[in-house]
Amino acid sequence: MAHDAPQATGPSKLVIRNIGLILSGALEKPILDGDTIVAENGKISAIGRFKDVNTEGATTIVDANGTTVAPGLIDSHVHPVAGDWTPRQNQINWIDSYLHGGVTTMISAGEVHMPGRPRDVVGLKAMAVFAQRAFWTLRPGGVKVHAGAPVIECEMVEEDFKEMAANGVKLLGEVGLGGVKDGPTARKMVGWARKYGIQSTIHTGGPSIPGSGLIDKDVVLEADTDVVGHINGGHTALPDDQIRCICEGCKRGLELVHNGNERSALFTLRTAREMGDLHRVILGTDAPAGSGVQPLGILRMVSMLSSLGDLPAEIAFCLATGNTARMRQLDCGLIEVGRSADFVIMDKAQHSPGKNILESVQLGDLPGIGMTIIDGIVRTQRSRNTPPAGKVPEVVTK
Fold first, then answer.
1. What is the DSSP string of 142-178?
2. Which of 5, 27, 52, 373 has the most CB atoms around it within 10 Å of its CB?
3. How many CB atoms lie within 10 A of CB 307?
4. What does the pLDDT average to over 122-141?
5. Confidence of residue 161 (pLDDT cuts 50, 70, 90)
6. Distance (Å, rounded) from C-alpha 324 to C-alpha 315?
7. Do 356 and 345 contact (CB within 8 A), yes or no?
8. pLDDT of the residue at 124
9. Is residue 397 scored above 80 in pLDDT?
10. Single GO molecular-function term (predicted)?
11. What is the pLDDT of residues 235-284, one digit of tens each?
12. Per residue, what are the HEC states of 53-73?
């Protein structure tokens, strides 16, 4: 079972040189000019040409060998339980497997698969605080898991949200997975959560687990959560007219998930694009779930949206990085000075017909991952899950 990854014990300086392509994660400028990135003590300190940046005193040097560096991928919708184990599929090391799929940060949409999950107010608050503390202390493989997302119940009052926020809870689990399924009650509680700095997500579409139910456009729009969770269904999506109504009726995040309806995901993407609202689209897997665990789920979403949604690959990667970081108020997900030094280094898969990684992804192929880095520390090298990359980076000194 993957346990807490080592952290830097002293001053550190990472230099990634000989980069072939830098994907920024930002829609407004998805490709950056440069061949070198420097990170000091886990934060990006310089981006540019090797000759123009200070690389002296590096404690780790990575030769990218002409490959692509992108921000570490963010999964906006996971359901963790206890460490790197999920009872949903009785699988261990699932988070570490996601790391091998380029995911360096995860956002909990509720620890709903916890055996015997408490439904009373005292119990659900206690579990939320426990999960928040446990996953920030334990980082499997180094992955940052933002957890502690309680599923709200009708008996809760404003003071409960104030108490949870004071104890570090920053997320709500999917509204609709507990007793709160109507618009007025959801809106009231979402308002309390927002008042105390807690971000909210709503279940959208048909029921997914026992106790959940249909959440349609009327409930979604009235609840006014910060993120419209799996708008393409988890698994069962709403009709197209309802999806369009949600897209047009609010300005909140539109989350597309791997464990949803692919056709509805493409419809949502087209709708958001027509509206000039691509910045609202973020990606998740909604796993572990009945479909299992998808270590390459975020990469597969990027590839699908690019190839079938006719979205330039460099833009598709933004939906899995910078869009989510900005919406979720994270310090990662973008390659810019001051951000966390979380990267995935990749190249087109061997024998892909694409001339380069961007063309390869837009043709529907997955890239090969050669390295992941979190907080400026190399966490994995050649991925055990992706197809082998045409070129791979290497650590040349430490």
1. T-EEE---PPP-TT--HHHHHHHHHTT--B-PPBTSS
2. 373
3. 17
4. 97
5. very high
6. 13
7. no
8. 98
9. no
10. enamidase activity
11. 899 999 999 999 999 999 999 999 999 999 999 999 999 999 999 999 99
12. CCCCCCCEEEECCCCEEEECE
Q: How far apart are CA 390 and CA 118, in angstroms?
A: 49
> Helical H runs in the chain?
94-99, 121-137, 158-166, 183-195, 217-223, 240-249, 262-274, 297-307, 313-319, 322-328, 357-362
Percent of the chain clearing pLDDT 90 (strictly above): 93
**Amino acid found at 235:** H
Check if the beta carbon of residue 101 is closer than 8 Å to that of residue 293.
no
Which tokens in the block code for residue 396? 């040349």
Its sign, for the CA torsion 173, 385, 99, 302, is: negative
Residue 347, phi then psi, degrees to nearest 5 = -150, 170
* Model pLDDT, residue 1: 43
Please check the confidence at residue 210 and state whether its pLDDT lies above 80. no
CA dihedral over 360, 392, 60, 383, signed as positive or negative: positive
SS3 (DSSP) at 304:
helix
